[in-house]
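Ligand-bound model needed. adenosine-5'-diphosphate.
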Amino acid sequence: MSELASILLTPIEYLKGVGPLRADMLKTELEIFTFGDLLEHFPHRHIDKTKVNSISEINPQTDYIQIAGTLLNYETVGEGRGKRLVAQLRDRTGIIELAWFQGITWVVKSLHVGSDYLVFGKTGFFNGKPQIVHPEIEPYVRANADGKNFLEPVYPTTEKLKARGFNGRQLGKFTYTLFSLLQPKDIPENIPSEVLEKLKLMNRFEAYRNIHFPASVQLSEQSIRRIKFEELFIAQIRLQLVRLQRHKVSRGVVFEKVGDLFNTLYAKYLPFELTGAQKRVLKEIRADTGRGHQMNRLLQGDVGSGKTIVALLSMLLAADNGYQSCLMAPTEILAQQHYTGLSELLKEMPVEIALLTGSTKAKERKRILKGLLEDTIHFVVGTHAVIEDSVQFKNLGLVIVDEQHRFGVAQRARLWEKATVPPHVLVMTATPIPRTLAMTAYGDLDYSVMDELPPGRQPVTTVHRYETARASVMDFARTEIDKGRQVYFIYPLIEESLKLSYEDLMQGYEQVKSFFPEPKFHISMVHGRQPGVQKETNMQRFVSGDTQIMVSTTVIEVGVNVPNASVMVIESAEKFGLSQLHQLRGRVGRGTEKSFCILLTGVKASKEARERIKIMCATNDGFKIAEKDLEIRGPGDIEGTRQSGALNFKIASIVNDKALLELARTEAERIVSEDVELGLAKNLQLKVFLHSQKRKNGWGKIS
Ligand code: ADP
Ligand code: MG
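Prediction:
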């Protein structure tokens, strides 16, 4: 293998025509260090040399265009920053101006008045005349009549490289040289042939050659499809290996029976009948934890689908088998609320539960740590404080991470240290994640979906109002409060400045107060600057119905459960992301009363913001919203996925290549479940490839 791979590991300076100086530029600007890196620097488009437009066709709607003509003249004009090079190019139909602001010295060297040039670029109009700024330009050679190699690759490059005379087409000369050195054995196949045949995929060497130098548009498309599939497939194989090796190899504590604790709560203290989805998920959890391998499950459920009770019943299952559990929440408010809620349900039962957060007093903390070590405390609810090193358990069997999917591989790994046999892990999401994202970023987890809301819920009605209509919104809130309901007013957290957010909130508070001046109205206010205790008290007053109005920043966002609240007013709604808006809206509609969400915005909201508001008004379905969010923002921006590495695809995209991803997933799952060691002859090439990559990227560290 090392022999096979060797040519691609050759440092880029050894490629004919590159040399040390250019090599340095390629390294710093494009991270091209070796022949292999150059091979994987794919063109972002191809120029069809046979397709040349006329200058007279250009109009204000024209975007990119390719023209061929004779250079009439050129000159540098202006001084200092305004200095530019302008040239005139003429074809049979007209004249166009070309302009450069950078790299002038280099461009001038390549221009010869009277010669023919092929020019490509984005057209614009300057003083009413068509112009191309920073065009790609090269001597014009008519394409061969046979049309061979008429698709010339253009590569992504940087402004700096362009300024040094390195444009997107020059890189193609290097790639061309590289291919003259390569043979099929240098780019060995890594996808099993049965998959290639089944999905009609091009072989690897052909695909790499055609993605750079396609002989036809069709071959270009086929090569792109093959390489996208390869990226997705290899990533899926890795995730499936992690998942199934854990199933086969890793030990896990065994919850073998459903005992008294589970049954008692279920029969006596559960205030409602479980939904079908809740029952199904509990069954999945039971099966997982009874098998003797460690559970790593992601529970996806929309806001309000009732994840908390699933968590509690799972914890009781652990307790029935002699194991402790820990429930982690993202905020103190939520941890506090879980603690209160669970304590209430458990009050007649022989289970000790404790709350551990950053603001737990030293003495109480000491008591809890001791209790956990001695197993006199069975359940601990808390924030991240719970995974600190000082927290040790006697017998930890289950860890539940609530309302968070940010709990990455590294954090999960810390839990291993808390018990000799790793505890089971259940991660419950804050908001649904699109399936494609779940498959890639969390593909090493098993996952359950709770796609059913408890009975009797009415969908929340969502409307958009301008801030100018605030008075009528307040009137509406008043009528709801008069009916005995409660209302939230949420203000955005201004990321750059806590101080500004605070001022915003204070102003909001004063404003709300001015609309509800009568003494019968009580207002709670909660924000990030308050000490924990004060936050809790204010929250608690709202929970108990003591206050009818909650004014808060987004600290309230996640998890909070006050079923009597029926109105959610979101101020400056244009400043919130989709999943955040959906989370916030999920704070109402939790009881049987009809609920409302009112999105207030200024008159001037951006196009994207208006799009978000529109989606919110159109659907209550968290899974649909998550899909839209992914489409609008792209995977890189979805919280917690940036560092996951699982999404670093060169050309595949989980937004645009869903179908291909599904295929890659299916094939990877099948192959790994049939041959987890990849020991079968038909999987040998794949195994060899994974090993070579492991060395290259240090992937081994992650799994
Ligand atoms: P989330 O999935 O958003 O965490 P919660 O666990 O907070 O949802 O549950 C939302 C509300 O629904 C709570 O008031 C909870 O008591 C209630 N609930 C949960 N399951 C059921 C059920 N099966 N039937 C009726 N109400 C339920
Ligand atoms: Mg919850």
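Confidence is low (pLDDT under 50) at residues 1-5, 639-644, 698-703.
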